[in-house]
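Task card 7
Instruction: Convert sequence to structure tokens.
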Amino acid sequence: MEHTYQTILVGIDGSEQAKNAFAKAVEVARRNQGKIIVASVLDSQVSTTMGFAPLNESIFVQEEEAAKEMIQEAKAYAASVGFEAVEGVVAYGSAKTAMAKELPAKYNVDLIMIGQSGLNAVERFITGSVASYVIREAKCDVLIIAPEEAE
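Output:
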């Protein structure tokens, strides 16, 4: 039996890797007559660790606006290539658990497409990549999009 991916989750963070993963997700969704959930995850710990000063709240509002803008850009790209089935989500909390567990469960995701991080080896060691966590923890298929080679 051939499996088709009906609901594809893609996380975006403004990086080229994420844009590349989204572009490839559009093609996979189109071939499968599926839809894309494009998510931007805001780390809510940023605001709680600093205490809620009005200044920090405005930073959080700015982050939220930036996230919504990235989602709009993703939808605009999809529309420009004739694909409309894109739902945007701004999620809060840990990017790792949002992408690996919370969003897939909420939206019945059957494929997560994620861009390989642009971090260097030391940064990856310190932060632990979101991609590697998603690979270990997700209950559905995961497709890692490798960075495109520079010409």
